[in-house]
C-alpha cells in the first residue's frame, strides 16, 4: 500500500512538472485559421499530450488491477473512462499535426470532454453502496438505490448536450461555432449544478450520521466519506474551471493558454481518480457489520 501511494504521488508530480514545462508559454496561433486555432487559440503541445496520455493510461491499468483483484464490477465505469481519456490526450498529437482534420478533432474533443461524467457516476454508485451497506437509509435525502439512477440520467443529458456542443464548436462557420460553445457551456453549467447538489447530499449524510452520535473515524467505513468528498472536490474544481473558461469566450485568458487546461482540468481529474488507486472502496464497504446491499467486490 505504501509503495502504491508513493507511485501515485510520483505520477501526479510527473504530470505537474511535465505539463508546466511543455505547455507554459504556448502562444496563440498567428497562422491562417484552422479548426484547432479557432477552438483552442494555441498550438497543442505534443509533449504535454503524450505525458498526460501516458499517465492516464498508467492510472487506468492500476484501476483495472484494483477492480479485477476485488471483482468490483460495479466500478467498471472508472477505469474504462480513464482509458478513453488517455486516448483523448494521445489524439491531441495528431490534432496538432492535422489541425484541419474535423474527424480527428471531434474524436479528441469527445474523448476529453465526456469521460469525466463516468468519474462522477462512480461516486454516485459508491454513495448508494455506502448508505445502504454501512449506515441507515434515513441519512440520505434521496433513496440511496436511486441516487445513481437520478444523477446518471442528469449526466447523460449533459453528456448529450456537451457532445452536441463540442461537435458544433468544431465548425468553421462562426455562427455554428458560437452556438456550439453556448450549448457546451449550458451542458457544463447543468452538470456543475447537478454535481454540487450531489456534494450537498454527501455533506447532509455526513452531518446526519454525526447527529446520531456515530463517529465515522471509529467505523471501518469511515474513510469512504473522506474519499467521496476529496475526489468530489477535485472534480468540482474541474467543473468550475470549464464553466469559467467557456464563459470567458473564445478569446478568454483561460481558453488561450493551454497550461490551465492541464492544471485546472486534467490534473484535478487525475488526482480524483488516483484517490481510488490508493483507497479502493470495497475494503471499507465490506468492513461494515451491515451487508444488506448486494456487493460483488471483496477486499
UniProtKB/TrEMBL annotation:
Keyword Membrane: yes
Keywords (A to Z) from UniProt: Membrane, Signal, Transmembrane, Transmembrane helix
Pfam families per UniProt: RTA1
InterPro entries reported for this sequence: RTA1
Localisation: Membrane
Transmembrane segments: 46-65, 72-93, 105-126, 147-163, 183-203, 224-244, 259-280
Membrane topology annotation: Multi-pass membrane protein
A GO cellular component entry from the record: membrane
Residues making up the signal peptide according to the UniProt record: 1-22
PANTHER family linked to this entry: PROTEIN RTA1-RELATED (PTHR31465:SF1)
Record's protein name: RTA1-domain-containing protein
Organism: Rhizopogon vinicolor AM-OR11-026
Amino acid at each position: 500500500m505504501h509503495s502504491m501511494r508513493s507511485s501515485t504521488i510520483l505520477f501526479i508530480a510527473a504530470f505537474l512538472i511535465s505539463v508546466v514545462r511543455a505547455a507554459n508559454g504556448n502562444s496563440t496561433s498567428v497562422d491562417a485559421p484552422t479548426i484547432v486555432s479557432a477552438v483552442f487559440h494555441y498550438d497543442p503541445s505534443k509533449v504535454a499530450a503524450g505525458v498526460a496520455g501516458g499517465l492516464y493510461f498508467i492510472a487506468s491499468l492500476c484501476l483495472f488491477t484494483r477492480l479485477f483483484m476485488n471483482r468490483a464490477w460495479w466500478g467498471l465505469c472508472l477505469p474504462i473512462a480513464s482509458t478513453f481519456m488517455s486516448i483523448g490526450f494521445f489524439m491531441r498529437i495528431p490534432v496538432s499535426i492535422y489541425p484541419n482534420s474535423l474527424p480527428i478533432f471531434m474524436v479528441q474533443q469527445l474523448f476529453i470532454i465526456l469521460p469525466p461524467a463516468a468519474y462522477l457516476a462512480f461516486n454516485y454508485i459508491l454513495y448508494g453502496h455506502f448508505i445502504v451497506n454501512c449506515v441507515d437509509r434515513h441519512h440520505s435525502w434521496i433513496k440511496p438505490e436511486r441516487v445513481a439512477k437520478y444523477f446518471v440520467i442528469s449526466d447523460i443529458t449533459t453528456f448529450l448536450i456537451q457532445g452536441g456542443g463540442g461537435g458544433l464548436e468544431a465548425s468553421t462557420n462562426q455562427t455554428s461555432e458560437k452556438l456550439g460553445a453556448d450549448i457546451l457551456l449550458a451542458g457544463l453549467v447543468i452538470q456543475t449544478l447537478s454535481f454540487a447538489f450531489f456534494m450537498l447530499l454527501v455533506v447532509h449524510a455526513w452531518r446526519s450520521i454525526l447527529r446520531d452520535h456515530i463517529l465515522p473515524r471509529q467505523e471501518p467505513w469511515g474513510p469512504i466519506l473522506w474519499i467521496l468528498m476529496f475526489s468530489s472536490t477535485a472534480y468540482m474544481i474541474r467543473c468550475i474551471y470549464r464553466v469559467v473558461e467557456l464563459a470567458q469566450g473564445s478569446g478568454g485568458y483561460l481558453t488561450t493558454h493551454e497550461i490551465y487546461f492541464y492544471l485546472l482540468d486534467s490534473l484535478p481529474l487525475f488526482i480524483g481518480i488516483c484517490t481510488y488507486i490508493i483507497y479502493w472502496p470495497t475494503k471499507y464497504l465490506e468492513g461494515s457489520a451491515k451487508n444488506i446491499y448486494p456487493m460483488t467486490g471483496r477486499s
